[in-house]
């Protein structure tokens, strides 16, 4: 158990005193007269919000041990509070158990082991006050700060009645949960876009769901956390399953072309004026409410802290107009329209027929976008519009280029876990207008025609980058971004692969933006419920700065690059860059089954076949998890359908960073072919699980008697002999570019360069770096089990990668 806090602000004594007074921890206290013991007991009594009488508070104090033998009350009759007694009690307040989590006789060893900050000496009331201030901002066993846990117990309920003019309140640079979540206002409006995607001659209306504090009705203007989620109004899972493409198909031979990028570049077509609705009247309050939004638990957490939560599914979804799309400029425009309404520059209506306008009068005009996967993707898309109201995005596991989601290296490559999915499948799954029978009847023919065109344009035959994908490449428009960016991604995410966040990160480094990057060891997950990281606290600091304009030094305090260690539990490291100046270029050359430091001109060729016995092919096609496990473990028959090259054991641990690059000379036995690669850590070791362990079901409260989330954390598992580091794929006919088809003559050697997916991986001393070269990827590429053989000219093959050494 180890805790990492990056959202804490160091404050002066006068500032700590002022803030403690603001949150009523010093109410009724005369500091110049009170003794240290009395002040300590006062603080402890205040930290018992569930105890409403003096007797109940006294009982609570008697349940806390100040040392091995005395309760707090017994201790203070004969001793003066010091650092040892203070932190013995503090650990109990933070949820740690005596004997199980720490030893009362040696609390400082426990504090160091748990990685909790503390004051080594407490010799005065000033020391005590500063220690208490910092303790309130220290995370406990459930990964939440003591102040957050006190809020969950009802500490801030008396603040609900503060006048709107006195809200919000901030402590340690973060907004406090002083908003009554039992009285949140839920409403629906319909934002008018500049789109007519369903071609009915009128601008598409977009359903928007809003949850805001009651205080906004009394004059308070709050920022909005906006989550754009095409899943928000339901999905058509069976339709998506029906449309999923077959992947047991032959790789196509491409006609040789000399296509240039200019020939396939997307240029927005000119669109004529779209009929807008005349305003027939104005209303202050909405006509429609909602029962329960499909929320993001971080948004729930911030609702209690003076932020509104806004959700919209976008065009082509239930109760909105338009046709569903995927990653297109129209989808970006649909997403941005909601921001513009929140910022006061676009119209919305109370319903879809009466043309009664309603404004976002309760919003202060500052918007942040949040969410994971498709949700984070639309945040990235909106940021590239440069719309003024968007002040920051927190994009988690987000796509930056849809080609890098559904394609790789001139190949159709599925997102991990979803073989056969493509843009058309995702569009159909998210077309929730289908759920309203009468509405769907009117739009069905248009939708089917539009979907058919998408199936054609996405081009599953060649897998090339084309105009369809160029229109869905947000990286081209990064120069428009004006807002701050927090990027969060899993280092083991094979759904939205790491190239998406790497390219976003690297290509924004020369823009004048405030950027933060958090890389965790998860797959395609949220991390706001981790035990080891104060993510919610960090983002509260960031949003209080970005949306409320609080001068809390968030850009300076939060790490630029934060990476979770892959070899230790609960350990996070700060870096200056993903692959910055601290890295060195390493090159390893191919030899027979080896990666060696120097090239061997006599290394000779090495060959493998893509063909498997029919029974094995069928088994692996149906269970790609087993296929990958057997490939990594080098089990037959996969040893004949791949090549493994291993380095010597490392003499010192290193961090593998950035993108591994392969320089190869390869031949295929037919006029088409694909190569796939896995970079592997070979070495017996305990490794973190693939998914976080559940530590406490519904153990995290978003506020007082409000919504809950599970507490989770990655734990080390039984020792295993290998770990996948990263992957990559290439079509041998795309040696020049993703949009040009090169000739591939059978049994002829060609030189090519391959860039694998990015990595940030600690490779321990004594482990070997392995590279598996194979062809068909049962999880991601098409596979037909052809009699197709590949040969490598080992003397002309090399692996390059960037790495930094780890100090002993």
Automatic annotation (TrEMBL):
<feature type="domain" description="X-Prolyl dipeptidyl aminopeptidase PepX N-terminal">
    <location>
        <begin position="1"/>
        <end position="155"/>
    </location>
</feature>
<keyword id="KW-0963">Cytoplasm</keyword>
<dbReference type="GO" id="GO:0008236">
    <property type="term" value="F:serine-type peptidase activity"/>
</dbReference>
<dbReference type="GO" id="GO:0006508">
    <property type="term" value="P:proteolysis"/>
</dbReference>
<dbReference type="GO" id="GO:0004177">
    <property type="term" value="F:aminopeptidase activity"/>
</dbReference>
<dbReference type="InterPro" id="IPR005674">
    <property type="entry name" value="CocE/Ser_esterase"/>
</dbReference>
<keyword id="KW-0378">Hydrolase</keyword>
<keyword id="KW-0645">Protease</keyword>
<dbReference type="InterPro" id="IPR029058">
    <property type="entry name" value="AB_hydrolase_fold"/>
</dbReference>
<dbReference type="Pfam" id="PF02129">
    <property type="entry name" value="Peptidase_S15"/>
</dbReference>
<keyword id="KW-0031">Aminopeptidase</keyword>
<dbReference type="InterPro" id="IPR008252">
    <property type="entry name" value="Pept_S15_Xpro"/>
</dbReference>
<feature type="active site" description="Charge relay system">
    <location>
        <position position="493"/>
    </location>
</feature>
<dbReference type="Pfam" id="PF08530">
    <property type="entry name" value="PepX_C"/>
</dbReference>
<dbReference type="InterPro" id="IPR036313">
    <property type="entry name" value="PepX_N_dom_sf"/>
</dbReference>
<dbReference type="GO" id="GO:0005737">
    <property type="term" value="C:cytoplasm"/>
</dbReference>
<comment type="subunit">
    <text>Homodimer.</text>
</comment>
<feature type="active site" description="Charge relay system">
    <location>
        <position position="524"/>
    </location>
</feature>
<comment type="similarity">
    <text>Belongs to the peptidase S15 family.</text>
</comment>
<feature type="domain" description="Xaa-Pro dipeptidyl-peptidase C-terminal">
    <location>
        <begin position="540"/>
        <end position="800"/>
    </location>
</feature>
<dbReference type="InterPro" id="IPR000383">
    <property type="entry name" value="Xaa-Pro-like_dom"/>
</dbReference>
<dbReference type="GO" id="GO:0008239">
    <property type="term" value="F:dipeptidyl-peptidase activity"/>
</dbReference>
<feature type="active site" description="Charge relay system">
    <location>
        <position position="373"/>
    </location>
</feature>
<protein>
    <recommendedName>
        <fullName>Xaa-Pro dipeptidyl-peptidase</fullName>
        <ecNumber>3.4.14.11</ecNumber>
    </recommendedName>
</protein>
<dbReference type="InterPro" id="IPR015251">
    <property type="entry name" value="PepX_N_dom"/>
</dbReference>
<dbReference type="InterPro" id="IPR008979">
    <property type="entry name" value="Galactose-bd-like_sf"/>
</dbReference>
<dbReference type="Pfam" id="PF09168">
    <property type="entry name" value="PepX_N"/>
</dbReference>
<keyword id="KW-0720">Serine protease</keyword>
<dbReference type="InterPro" id="IPR013736">
    <property type="entry name" value="Xaa-Pro_dipept_C"/>
</dbReference>
<comment type="function">
    <text>Removes N-terminal dipeptides sequentially from polypeptides having unsubstituted N-termini provided that the penultimate residue is proline.</text>
</comment>
């Amino acid at each position: 158990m180890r805790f990492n806090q990056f959202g804490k602000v160091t404050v002066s004594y006068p500032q700590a005193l002022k803030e403690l007074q603001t949150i009523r921890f010093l109410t009724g206290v005369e500091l110049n007269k009170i003794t240290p013991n009395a002040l300590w007991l006062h603080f402890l009594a205040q930290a018992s919000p569930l105890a409403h009488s003096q007797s109940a508070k006294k009982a609570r104090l008697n349940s806390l041990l100040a040392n091995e033998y005395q309760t707090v009350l017994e201790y203070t009759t004969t001793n003066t509070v010091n650092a040892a007694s203070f932190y013995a009690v503090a650990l109990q307040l933070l949820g740690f158990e005596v004997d199980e989590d720490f030893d009362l006789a040696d609390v400082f060893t426990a504090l160091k082991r748990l990685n909790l900050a503390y004051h080594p000496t407490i010799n005065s009331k000033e020391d005590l006050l500063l220690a208490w201030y910092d303790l309130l901002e220290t995370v406990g066993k459930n990964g939440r700060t003591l102040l957050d846990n006190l809020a969950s117990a009802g500490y801030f309920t008396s603040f609900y009645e503060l006048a709107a003019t006195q809200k919000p309140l901030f402590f340690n640079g973060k907004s406090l949960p002083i908003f009554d979540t039992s009285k949140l206002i839920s409403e629906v409006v319909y934002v008018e876009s500049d789109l007519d995607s369903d071609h009915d001659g009128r601008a598409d209306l977009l359903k928007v769901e809003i949850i805001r504090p009651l205080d906004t009705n009394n004059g308070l203007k709050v920022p909005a956390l906006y989550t754009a989620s095409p899943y928000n109004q339901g999905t058509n899972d069976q339709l998506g399953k029906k449309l999923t493409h077959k992947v047991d198909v032959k790789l196509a031979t491409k006609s040789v072309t000399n296509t240039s990028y200019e020939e396939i570049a997307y240029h927005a077509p000119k669109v004529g004026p779209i009929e807008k609705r005349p305003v027939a009247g104005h209303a202050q309050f909405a006509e429609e409410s909602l029962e329960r939004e499909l929320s993001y638990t971080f948004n729930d957490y911030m609702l209690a802290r003076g932020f509104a939560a806004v959700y919209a599914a976008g065009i082509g979804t239930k109760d909105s107009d338009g046709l569903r799309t995927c990653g297109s400029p129209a989808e970006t425009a649909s997403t941005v329209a909601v921001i513009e309404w929140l910022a006061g520059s676009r119209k919305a209506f109370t319903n879809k027929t009466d043309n009664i306008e309603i404004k976002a009068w309760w919003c202060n005009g500052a918007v942040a976008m949040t969410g994971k996967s498709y949700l984070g993707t639309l945040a990235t898309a909106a940021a590239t519009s440069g719309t003024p109201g968007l002040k920051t995005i927190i994009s988690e596991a987000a796509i930056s280029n849809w080609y890098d989601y559904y394609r790789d290296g001139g190949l159709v490559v599925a997102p991990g876990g979803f073989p056969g999915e493509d843009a058309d499948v995702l569009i159909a799954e998210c077309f929730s207008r289908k759920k309203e029978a009468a509405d769907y009847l009117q739009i069905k023919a248009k939708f089917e025609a539009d979907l058919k065109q998408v199936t054609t344009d996405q081009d599953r035959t060649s897998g090339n980058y084309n105009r369809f994908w160029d229109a869905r490449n947000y990286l081209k428009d990064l120069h428009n971004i004006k807002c701050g960016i927090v990027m969060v991604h899993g280092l083991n995410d094979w759904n939205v692969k790491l190239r998406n966040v790497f390219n976003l990160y690297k290509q924004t480094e020369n823009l004048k933006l405030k950027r933060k990057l958090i890389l965790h060891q998860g797959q395609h997950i949220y991390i706001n419920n981790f035990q080891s990281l104060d993510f919610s606290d960090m983002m509260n600091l960031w949003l209080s700065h970005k949306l409320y304009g609080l001068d809390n030094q968030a850009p300076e305090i939060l790490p630029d690059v934060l990476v979770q260690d892959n070899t230790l539990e609960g350990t996070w490291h700060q870096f200056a860059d993903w692959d910055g100046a601290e890295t060195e270029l390493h090159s390893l050359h191919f030899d027979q089954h080896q990666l060696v430091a120097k090239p061997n001109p006599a290394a000779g060729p090495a060959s493998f076949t893509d063909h498997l016995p029919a029974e094995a092919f069928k088994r692996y096609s149906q269970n790609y998890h087993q296929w990958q496990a057997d490939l990594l473990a080098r089990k037959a028959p996969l040893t004949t359908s791949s090549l493994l090259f291993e380095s010597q054991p490392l003499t010192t641990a290193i961090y593998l960073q950035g993108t591994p690059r392969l320089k190869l000379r390869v031949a295929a036995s037919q006029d088409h072919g694909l190569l796939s690669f896995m970079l592997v850590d070979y070495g017996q070791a305990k490794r973190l699980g693939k998914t976080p362990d559940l530590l406490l079901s519904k153990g995290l409260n978003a506020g007082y008697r409000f919504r809950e989330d599970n507490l989770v954390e990655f734990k080390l598992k039984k020792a295993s002999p290998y770990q996948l580091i990263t992957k990559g794929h290439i079509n041998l006919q795309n040696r020049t570019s993703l949009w040009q088809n090169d000739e591939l003559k059978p049994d002829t050697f060609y030189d090519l360069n391959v860039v694998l997916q990015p990595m940030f991986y600690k490779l321990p001393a004594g482990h070997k770096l392995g590279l598996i070269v194979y062809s068909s990827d049962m999880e991601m590429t098409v596979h037909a089990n052809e009699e197709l053989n590949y040969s490598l000219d080992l003397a002309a093959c090399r692996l390059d990668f960037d790495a930094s050494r780890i100090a002993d």
